Amino acid sequence: ALANIGVVGLAVMGSNLARNLASREGNTVAVYNRSRSKTDELVAEHPEAGFIPAFSYEEFAASLSKPRTAIIMVKAGRPTDAVIDSLVEVFEPGDIIVDGGNAYFPDTIRREKAVRETGINFVGAGISGGEEGALTGPSIMPGGSDESWVTLGPILKSIAAVAEGEPCVTHVGHDGAGHFVKMVHNGIEYADMQLIAEAYDLIRRGTGKTPAEIADVFAEWNKGELESYLIEITAEVLRQVDAETGKPLVDVILDQAGAKGTGAWTVQTALALGVPVSGIAEATFARSLSSHPEQRAVAASLPGPDEEFRVDDVDGFIEDVRQALFASKIIAYSQGFDEIRAGAAEYNWTIDLGAVSKIWRAGCIIRAQFLNRIADAYAEQPDLPVLATAPYFAEALTRGQAAWRRVVVAATQAGIPSPAFSSSLAYYDGIRAERLPAALVQGQRDFFGAHTYKRIDKEGTFHTQWSGDRTEIEAEDTH
Ligand code: NBP
Description:
The protein is of the alpha/beta class. Helices cover 55% and strands 8% of the residues. The N and C termini lie far apart (64 Å). The protein binds nicotinamide 8-bromo-adenine dinucleotide phosphate (NBP). It is an enzyme of class 1 (oxidoreductase). One of its GO terms (biological process) is D-gluconate metabolic process.
């Protein structure tokens, strides 16, 4: 028999995805890996999967029914290009090549364009949820053509995570849309994690509670509006005791956060699009700051506030931090969805933002009940300009803003860094401001560069003759 789906690249992600595919009714899975040993191992260890192993690209192509459909799970970058080139050689027009790796979306746009010229479909699909997700059900964000979705849709639906009866996969948009949305997902994940870390730090340093006690706080929070996978695992991490030293594990882990670059992509892309994703940016920078021990060792001599930080009303403070966390989280998601909206406009993708929020409800790291509220908001108003202004979120911000301000003030006075809390609050105050000091910036720009300005009271573009008699003239618009 022929396989209806193939997987190329049988490291941890690919072999788990292949096993997931094989476990679903109706799928027969062909597998190929550059070095034969991984293929042999997978096939030997999982006879139940009924894999059809291939040991060359020709054999792989011959083992697939038409239209041939293959998911590539190899190292992002050149390896992906190498595999695509090899598959294009042995596939035919109408066949479908899916890149399930963590590609940078401009690469996906480039690859889609090149592969399309051969008549073969190319789909960049963001696959979230790590190793476990790949095996048990990931959240999947495919881009690519409508034609490819006809064949690919049912296959991806068969393996995706399920949230409230719905598979966590949707055809996000054409060419690179899927990888773009996966990138922003990761950026939001950075912000979510940093916000949680700041909440922990403030509670620990403000109340003197132990990590295990703070684990209880997070476990409690997980029963309310903050309910999410990340809050849940935070409690688990904080409760963990190091076997060697008997100390809380969090106290023996080196405080230098790593990153694989997707947060930086999200921020770079946002900068290029002119979208202020300040929460994600601060979260990304916070990891960078943490990872410079040489600078931190030197800067440790700089002074902080004189007084020690201790809150009087412990329960009140913890509730304030909870509110600040929820408010900041709303802003981080609002900014992330703003980036997706702007990316869709820039790259001509039609992206259903509500559908995106729904496929993140399971099978990915930011999974949470909260995402239903985002779906509701976009169902109510698909062209919502600022997610945070949707009734549910606006109400939460109205309720939480006083606590949020108290927490940022307390953190500032205590000398506890809270870049994500405070930048989210600054965004909130900026976006809701009736008038911004951007007017002064425009005046400065006109002064030194004759960049001109617009007026609030009449049409046209103006310039003040700063080096002359300082009269205003009508000018050509040069921004
Ligand atoms: P790796 O990223 O470690 O890649 C190893 C695989 O790439 C092996 O199968 C290897 O074949 C193959 N490969 C390489 Br390297 N160069 C190749 C080439 N020139 N031609 C053909 N094959 C080549 O695997 P992974 O950790 O399973 O990740 C796979 C993808 O999934 C990556 O893009 C990664 O970023 C992504 N990922 C996503 C998540 C997530 O949470 N969504 C988690 C982890 C990874 P070999 O066996 O012959 O060396």
